[in-house]
Structure formats: structure tokens, C-alpha cells
Write the C-alpha cells for this entry.
Amino acid sequence: MRPDTSNYRDIFLNDRPMMDARAPVEFAKGAFPHTVNLPLMTDIERQRVGTCYKQHGQQAAIELGHQLVSGTTKAERIEAWAAFARANPQGYLYCFRGGLRSQIVQQWLKSEAGIDYPRVSGGYKALRTFLVETTQQAVEQCDFVLVGGLTGTGKTDVVAKLANSLDLEGHANHRGSSFGKRATPQPAQIDFENRLAIDILKKRAAGHEQFVLEDEGRIVGSCSLPLELYQGMQRFPMVWLEDSFEDRVERILRDYVVNLCAEFIDAHGDEEGFPRFAERLRQSLDNILKRLGGERHQRMAALMDQALAEQRASGAVDLHRGWIEGLLREYYDPMYAYQRENKASRIEFAGEQEAVLEYLRQRRPVR
């Protein structure tokens, strides 16, 4: 039998598959990539056992648990665990703290299915602590540089082309702006933090000690950046990406109209996809109504509705340039110009995409 492990680094660097024995409600709040929820107890069973523990103590709670998970229910769960173990011979199982629940799963797998399967010592809590510390240590020990620029300059494109980048928007499944919501949902907060930490871990293991990331606000959609990283981003040096107004309009048209519409159609089919896409665009504009003001919002909304009607009728997207150009000139560019002025002392290089990429590829860590 492979021994139980506390080598959390190995688990995440090698994408070890894991069986999560916690209840579904715990799993939904946050878990890890390559993990399957095969609980010892359902949410209701766990709640009943927890109540029993508080009222009558541990032994009574254990006895109730064995009553609830017995007979056919027990056999079905053991079969599910055994199927996972056979399919993932290099994997592990865990519960919240690596205690009673994962020990019971391990014992039943051995006694009922003849399978020795190792646990993660310390369970979910230890794995989670390891990842939180991974991000904290990187902020303390590594060099970071931000990519800033006006809306539509292609900051995300730059990040995607660098081996030492951290794609915050990719991990959050959100493009970062009021229009950044995608066709598929964002991860839970803990899942976002875990994905980012694993990315950092793997890149540091590959020898990267300098990271490039897009200049972001505290929140990317519904995902909050880890506090220590966000605080660091208020002082990290920056490069400023530049591009022509026309190219920026075309890039926004590609990302927020053409590609987003395709995402919705892929996710919801031809009939439902376009109406959902159209509703998402309108909602995104409504999200900045207060900052736009009523007159500008009404004007942009009319342009957007005309563009959506034309797109629905003929597939043409040309009319979308109207509201895109209006928002850039009247809302986004003044806002970003103000931000650039405030961050001017931290900007160490400015240029168009190829120049910025060349600079970042040759840049040496300051620390």
C-alpha cells in the first residue's frame, strides 16, 4: 500500500487525482482541481450527525453515522469509492482535517473492497493552508510587474503570450470590466484562489521568479484577489500598453461581441444563445448607469439595441462599433487616463504590443 501523504507540493505539481469525502455543501464552497466529491455522508446525514455530536457526544454521533450509512447505501458508496480508486491508482482521498471521515472511507475500502488507498494527512484544511501560503510566499519572495493600458489595448493578449504570466482573469473566468462576465459561471472564491496558487507553484517549480500580471481592481467579477497580492499590486512596477483607437475598437468588438456571442451559442444553443448574449450586453451597460449618467446611458443603449437587432437579423456586427466608440471616448478613456496619471511614477516602459512583449521577455527580476 502507498503510504498516507503530507507531500502537498507533489499533489499539486503532478495533478494527483483526489477523492473528497466531505459533504456536498462543503465541496461546493471550495475544492481543488482534479478532485471528485464522493462523500461519506450527504448534507442531511452530516447535519444529523453534527447535531447528535453536540447533544450526546462523539460516540453517539459515530453510532448514528454508522446507522445512516449502512446496508445498500453503504454498499453503493463503497462501490463508488472503489471505482475511483481503481481508475486513479496514484490518487488520494481526504476529508476536512484528515480525521474520522477519511479514516472510515479508507477502512471500508480495505475491508469491503480489498483496496488499500492512501489519505492526505491533514485533509482539506492542510491542502488549503499550503496553497494560501504558496501565494503569500510568492508575493514576499518574487518579482512582479503589471501590464496596464487603456481598455481594448490587448493586455490579456500580452499576458497570454508570456510563460511567466499569471492570468487572473482566466482563473476568475471573467474579463475584469463591467462587460467582463462570460457565458459560463465564475468559480467559487476558494476555487479561484486555489487555481491561482497552483499556477504560481508550477511556474516557480519551472524556474520562474518573476511574474507578469494584468493590472486589476480588487475584484474580478465576483472573485476577490488574495489580499496580500492586491496590496502588492498597489506598489508593483508597471508597463503601459498602447494601441490605436481603431485597433482597440476592433479588439473589443472581437472579444465582447463576436466571441462572447459564440460562447453563449456554444453554451445554450442557437435558439437561446443569442437572446442570452443580448441580455448580458444590456445588463453590462446597465451596470454602469450611475457612472454614465442617464443621458449617456440612454444614448448608448439605443445604439446597442440597433446593433443587436441588426446582428440578429443578418449576422453583421458593424453597428456595435457605435456604442463601443462612444463608451471608450466618453467613459473608459477619461477614467484610465486619470489612473495612468496616478500610476505614472511606477511605469517603467510604454509601447505597443510587440515592444512591450520584447521588454517583458528581457526584463530581469529586481529582487
